[in-house]
Amino acid sequence: MLDQVAELVREVAQTIVLPRFQRLAHDEVQQKAPGDLVTIADQESERALSRGLTALLPGSVVVGEEAVAADPAVRDRIGAGGSVWIVDPVDGTNNFAAGKTPFCVMVALVTDGEQAAAWILDVVGDHLTIAEAGSGAYRDGVRVKTRTDDPGAAGLYGVVSHKYLPEDLGAEVRRNAAGLGGFTAGKHCAGYEYPAIATDEQQFGMFWRILPWDHTPGSLIVREAGGVVRHLDGVEYRPTNHQRGLLVAANEEIWHTAQGTLFPQGPPA
């Protein structure tokens, strides 16, 4: 199943997504909400992935970003039991629409509410990161593991994605983040940020808006590589969670160091 889904993801990326990169017509880009774009590639990729995935696993259902945009009740399928595919047909759509990288195609399989497998394809770089629950995480066929030490706050580099934070909280978090070794606002592509933690390109990531297609694939990859994915109050992330705020870290010690630095007074209520 891992290889079959990987082949499907690559095929969709190469035949639907990549051919439209830097070639989108004006009428092939729309705005779902202020600042939130969708392109014809997102729509066609989701349709193709949905057909292929349900054919690979009869009886399964799909929760795709664009299907939920059309009908929010589709999201409830994640907690309804059985086999559920969570699909982000083009992760990093705003980058893609602007003719920039990174952007990815992401798929996760959830079985009875638990993460079972994940696939993230960096479309332009052609790097595939996969994970299966209990079997580790792999990038281009090579097993990846997060770092096991904690260099302290001044030695940590990562992402503080403050775009959706309330204004006052965002300003406070940015001030506190100055105590870290370095941080950026991220590359607006979860499919880049999570594998970067799994491979020690960065050691943590803090996100506020938590949508299952953005975080379910990468969270399994990071965990299978040895990392930690929890809400700001320490509750473990699950695909059914709607709670805002997520802190991802290479290991337990780094998670606590990053949390204590960003939220010295404790996590926001």
Task: Write up this protein.
There is one protein chain. This protein has helices at residues 2-17, 40-56, 65-70, 93-97, 167-177, 190-198, 212-224, 252-262, and strands at 29-33, 36-39, 61-64, 83-91, 104-111, 114-122, 127-132, 136-139, 142-144, 157-160, 182-184, 204-207, 228-230, 246-249. 33% of the residues lie in helices and 26% in strands. The protein has 2 domains: 2-144, Fructose-1,6-Bisphosphatase, Chain A, domain 1 (2-Layer Sandwich); 153-262, D-Maltodextrin-Binding Protein, domain 2 (3-Layer(aba) Sandwich), CATH 3.40.190. The mean pLDDT is 96. It is of the alpha+beta class and 269 residues long. Strands 3-4-5-6-7-8-9 form a 7-stranded mixed β-sheet, sandwiched between helices. Strands 11-10-12-14-13 form a 5-stranded mixed β-sheet, sandwiched between helices.
Which helices and strands, and how do they pair?
Layout: H1 2-17, E1 29-33, E2 36-39, H2 40-56, E3 61-64, H3 65-70, E4 83-91, H4 93-97, E5 104-111, E6 114-122, E7 127-132, E8 136-139, E9 142-144, E10 157-160, H5 167-177, E11 182-184, H6 190-198, E12 204-207, H7 212-224, E13 228-230, E14 246-249, H8 252-262
Parallel strand pairs: 3-4, 10-11, 10-12
Antiparallel strand pairs: 1-2, 4-5, 5-6, 6-7, 7-8, 8-9, 12-14, 13-14
CATH homologous superfamily assignment of the largest domain: Fructose-1,6-Bisphosphatase, subunit A, domain 1
**Count of structural domains:** 2
Shape assignment: globular
Q: Count every beta strand, where a strand is a DSSP E run of 2 or more residues.
A: 14
How confident is the prediction overall: mean pLDDT? Answer: 96
Radius of gyration: 18 Å
Helicity level: 25-40%
Order of helices and strands: HEEHEHEHEEEEEEHEHEHEEH
DSSP strand content: 25-35%
- Profile the largest sheet: 7 strands, mixed
CATH topology of the largest domain: Fructose-1,6-Bisphosphatase, Chain A, domain 1
Main structural class? alpha+beta
